[in-house]
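Review form for a predicted model. The reviewer records the input and the model, then writes brief findings.
Reviewer: anonymous (R2)
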Amino acid sequence: MKKNSLKKKTAAWLAALAVFLTSAELPLTQQPVYAETAETNTTFAAARNLEFGSSMAGTLSTSDNIRYYKFSLKEANQLQLGVERNQGGWGAVYIKFYDASQTEIYSERTYNGSFSLGPLYFTGGDYYMTLALDSSYDETFSFRANVDTLGENFVETQDANNDRRENASVIGLKKTYKGVLAINDDIDYYRFQVPAAGQIRFNLTNAAGDSIRYTFYDQSLNQAYTDTVIRRSKTSPSVSVKKGIYYLAIEKANVNGSVGSYTFSIDHMPQGGTSGSNTGKVTVKQVKIKSVQNSARKKMTVKWNKVSKVSGYELWYSTNSNFKKGVVKKKLSSSVTKKTYSGLKKKKTYYVKIRAYKNVNDGKKYGKWSSKKSVVIRK
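Model under review:
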């Protein structure tokens, strides 16, 4: 009887346990998770497809501490990644990206429980991502990756790009273009034709997170102009050019600098003409001096009328009425119409004249001098 009773109790306990295990529910994540039912993506060859916009999950242990994923991009994209470590993050987690040749191009390490990366910029092509744990604890993780196209005008991939002068993208004048400097793309080359000697105006907007450098070369690869524009800034320098083929290189100012997008256009102003015109002469109106006064002790104040559409003014003053000696020459902004000069000699007569100028391809085009005016420094 005792054996039969024990068997009945054991059977009842096992039945109850089976009911409990069948009805028990595991904790659910707040978002649907693509769970790794089989932890097989432990090599490049076995990399799992990364599904953008979907949550993915996995488990890492001290003896099995890395997972591989792969993805493809048709053109330049920015990628953002959010990771959650369900154990709160006891050790370091490493996120790495590799190109199609399995060469590492980006690495990040963090000890945070939840963290995000990006935006990270990639050209088109095939890529791998690894997530690895350096910890003495086992833990689960989940992550979500999203990508957005950057809409560059010339599609770049790991195999087809404008990273060399021989592969420069052909561009036209007076057109706006968008380019991208990516994690695996340090420089872009462009090629354009200048129809006549004159000036080009380069309009560049740097939307990247760090400074970028731009350089113009002539057909013989002689450097015509170079400069740097800081992050999230604009520039529009004018460069003197001859007729012929030119190259433009846009690159990271620092090898490890931040990356991002940029937009630019090139306007052409032929010699002796204006932007977009092949004919016409540059004219600069004459300036008129309104007054010259001994405004304070050993000072004089000069006022003149504003001349529109000029680059600036040149003002001369001297105690010599013919401006043959002792001449002080000043370059002034086009927005200025009043200027005070100090350190003058008492009881001396000073003569003043001024003219406007425009910047043109071969230097400056000046207007006529104003009529000279004079003032005696009495105080």
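Findings: The CA atoms of residues 171 and 192 lie 5 Å apart.
Further findings: The longest helix spans residues 2-23.
Recommendation: see findings above.
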